[in-house]
Amino acid sequence: MTPLAEVLRDEIRREGPIPFRRFMEAALYDPVHGYYRRDPFGKQGDFYTAEQIQPVFGILIAQQVRALYREMGSPADFTVVELGAGRSEMAAAFEGWRYIPVDLNTGSLPERFRGVVFCNEFFDALPVETVTCSGGGCRELRVGWDERFVWTVGCPVREPVADYLRRYFPPLAEGTRCEVNLEALAWLERIACAIEAGFVFTIDYGFTRAESARFPQGSLMSYRKHQADEDVLRDPGVQDITAHVAFSALEEHGARLGLKTVRFETLAQTLLGAGEADQFAAALAAESPADELRRRLQLKTLLFGMGETFRTLLQKAGGAHAGLATK
Fold this sequence. Notes:
Largest sheet: 6 strands, mixed
Number of strands: 16
Radius of gyration: 20 Å
Order of helices and strands: HEHHEEEEEEHEHEEEEEEHEHHHE
Helix content: 25-40%
Shape: globular
Oligomer: single chain
């Protein structure tokens, strides 16, 4: 049993089943035993993200950000804020601008700024509520203990959760499970209050309202040693936990905050657009044949592997409603 499992087990014994949001938050971000207290990335870790595919990913994303910078008139105070910056592997790509890395436990959004908020696999790692539909209504799924962590059905969902389900999911069938990411909406509100003009540039895996039917038992997944596992309650603190992003929620809640959708497309389409101007010359420029081959393999992985799995959402700030939060 992991040290964090002991802590959560004792908490459940004292207080009864806990919200999954509490379980996921502790599993990932507990200051002593949380998963992100260590480095989970790369070959020796549990998974790769696009940011580890350097330098090609960084060069192409920087080209996209440069186009947005020019669209804004090349302001001297242009700022790139990266949410979920991790090891700040994009710092070199963004070195031409003021760069502010932010993670859930470190850093914070500037109070007011102009530029781009870059969110690469940020929203999928935010703690979520879990819901099951039974008996004609939606009820909270909580985490209990019975010699191991188990799912238990709790009370009818709170009104903010019910409102999220009404807005961003089709009517849910009996037996359906899903996740509700209220924290993602709260982050959009913080962003909208802080950004005076610019863009929110999100890369993640997820679904639209219509596509949510592909996940009748929800989208929670854990990762450990490059192996995916649906048992997200096992060994808290030593495996990653993610939930697919509800892009309809980001788009529609963003629109109410003055964040207008510019593009919603695959990552491959975004990278193709970024590299089109120079026919990928900058991304593939290499000092040796071996380095050129490595970069070509990186580009292939980005376009034909991750590129079709991940989506990009580009939202523009600075409209009449920018900076206004809604309830």
